[in-house]
Design brief:
Aspartate Aminotransferase, domain 1, globular, PyrdxlP-dep_Trfase_major, 12 strands, pyridoxal phosphate, about 35% helix, 15 helices, PyrdxlP-dep_Trfase_small, about 450 residues, alpha/beta
């Protein structure tokens, strides 16, 4: 029978006395010394996912079991002391409490680490909890962050309002394409983090990850990259990013039914975030429900297939819409200013992302366009979020970027009529294109 030690964690609780007999082949270990979940970076993230340990069910099921317990028993009284001291941990199948580590959530974390090519990962209750936990772990009172001025509205509000008020952590917002400006914004000895999105929300600016990492690392600054818009498409850690964060709610989930996040990075960082006295994940409690983790772990294996279709349709629609004279923003188009950057950084065969934008100039025209697409032709839905199998549309300036004032939106390049489209893959491509054309024709017919 094949040796399954690297793919199957025993479901039997071990006592403290057989501690020294337990094999150290697991990828996830105790709080004080977490071993890397993954150590090699293949060219294709799907290959890394396929190589990750597969967790079988308690009775040999091909799917893992859901460990729904909040707390875990020990067989000997002395074992609990050893667990709280960090001597025994999940590497030896010892669990304390699910706010700390849960077997089902850890399995999803292994998958996320494999996906992003990082040593370790930890999955959280939301994307914002992942982002805020990382920032609060890396920055103390008086700390400083340099961040892209084009960010998801919630992240922008965290940096511009909450962190200065509650934590005395300030942020300088910069144009990340202005490398000199980024360099000058870093205050040596005070700046702790350079933060940006791999592909920005909603303007689809593509970050030159290797160059930005070089600038930051020369100054001793950690690089945190939000890769929510481009899972599988880009792998920021491969190009030097220290930490990659995700809102798993989007493309990775794919069903618009789950809120979740992830922190992917060095084992040392994840360990520090789980520290009993100082760890933000441990103490702030952004805990993922194991039932959610189970759902997500079943979706990640087909993420690559979904992303390829999202990206294929986005490129097709962007190309055709541009030919019709619309002002389309999509990094897969050769006239996009960052097309060559994304082409040089993208993982082979995954395309250029599943999001495109159409600038309708005014909010009124944007709303009329979306109304026709939803209520006249059934092309998609007016809703925030992204990565759903149906197309989702929103006018970013008055929705997901509404936390920014008019001047901030102008600096970020967000026009009042910018419609963000997360292109779905439901139905036939030509069927959906026909619906889009029909809405455009109606726009022309009702033009004043």
């Amino acid at each position: 029978m094949a040796d399954t030690r690297n793919v199957l964690m025993s479901t039997k609780k071990r006592s403290g006395s057989d501690d020294n007999d337990w094999d150290h082949d697991d990828f996830i270990v105790a709080r004080k010394q977490m071993k890397p979940m993954t150590t090699l970076w293949p060219e294709d993230p799907a290959t890394a996912l396929a190589n990750a340990r597969h967790e079988f069910g308690e009775h040999g099921g091909v799917n893992m079991s859901i460990e729904a317990s909040a707390t875990f028993t020990v067989m000997e009284p002395e074992t609990m002391r050893r667990m709280f001291s960090g001597e025994l941990g999940p590497d030896r199948d010892f669990f304390i409490y699910s706010r700390h580590f849960n077997p089902t959530v850890l399995n999803l974390s292994r998958q996320m680490a494999a996906l992003e090519g990082t040593e370790a990962a930890y999955c959280t209750a939301s994307g914002m909890s992942a982002i805020s936990s990382v920032l609060l772990q890396l920055c103390s009172s008086g700390g400083h962050v340099v961040a892209s001025r084009t960010l998801y509205g919630g992240t922008y509000a965290l940096f511009s309002h909450f962190l200065p008020r509650a934590c005395n952590i300030t942020t300088s917002f910069v144009d990340i394409k202005d490398f000199l400006g980024v360099k000058e914004a870093i205050v040596e000895g005070r700046t702790k983090v350079l933060y940006f999105e791999a592909v920005s929300n909603p303007t689809l600016t593509v970050a030159n990850v290797p160059e930005l990492c070089r600038i930051a690392h020369e100054k001793g600054v950690m690089v945190v990259v939000d890769n929510t818009f481009a899972p599988m498409v880009m792998s920021p850690a491969r190009w030097g990013a220290d930490v990659v964060v995700h809102s798993i709610s989007k493309f990775i989930s794919g069903g618009a039914d789950i809120i979740a996040g992830a922190v992917c990075g060095p084992a040392s960082l994840v360990n520090s975030m789980m520290d009993l006295h100082q760890g933000t994940l441990m103490l702030l409690g952004p805990t993922m429900n194991p039932k959610v983790a189970f759902e997500l772990s079943e979706r990640i294996p087909h993420l690559g297939l979904r992303m390829k279709e999202h990206c294929h349709r986005a490129l097709t629609f962007a190309t055709r819409m541009k030919k019709l004279g619309l002002k389309v923003v999509y990094p897969g188009l050769e006239d996009h200013p960052d097309h060559s950057t994304l082409k040089s950084l993208a993982n082979k065969d995954y395309g250029f992302g599943g999001i495109l934008c159409v600038d309708m100039q005014t909010e009124e025209r944007a709303n009329r366009f979306m109304n026709l697409l939803q209520n006249y032709t059934q092309f998609g839905f007016m809703a925030v979020s992204l990565g759903y199998y149906e197309t989702l549309m929103s006018c970013s300036g008055s929705s997901t970027s509404s936390e920014m004032n008019a001047e901030e939106k102008e600096l970020a390049g967000i026009s009042p009529g910018l419609v963000r489209m997360s292109i779905g893959y439901s139905g036939n491509l030509e069927q959906k294109w026909s619906q889009l054309e029909k809405a455009l024709s109606r726009m022309q017919d009702t033009k004043h």
